[in-house]
Amino acid sequence: MGQPIITTRQTDSEDRIYVGDLARGVKRFRVTCDEERRIILEPEDIPEREKWLYENPEALASVRRGIQQSKEGKTVLAREDFTKYINSED
Q: If you compute the radius of gyration of the chain from its CA atoms, what whole number of angstroms results?
């Protein structure tokens, strides 16, 4: 994702804050306001790059099976170092 974006926004006449340019494509957020009145917005939508998984029952079942196997300790060492495939933008 890169560097965090830190910006200042001002409320409009109806106490709304515009964040559209910071959250393109996100329509739904979980809103948390802590004891120090900090407001945290967390996307509730499924990101577009992950949406395909939920639309493919076979792939989703495979991922869930892998997660369960991992919880049960059913793992093996990879024969290859996969860190070379890491995309720093993800």
A: 19
Number of domains in the chain: 1
| Amino acid code (one letter) for 69 | Q
> For each of the chain's 90 residues, which pLDDT tens digit applies?
578 888 899 999 999 999 888 888 788 899 999 999 999 998 888 877 888 998 999 999 999 999 999 999 999 888 999 898 888 665
Domain assignment present for residue 70? The answer is yes
Quote the domain boundaries for residue 64: 48-75
Selection from 58, 57, 47 nearest residue 90 by Cα: 47
Which amino acid does the sequence have at 28? R
Tokens of 49: 């790059």
DSSP letters for 1-61 = --SPP-------TTS----GGGSTT---EEEEE-TT--EEEEE-SPPHHHHHHHT-HHHHH
Domain assignment of residue 67, yes or no: yes
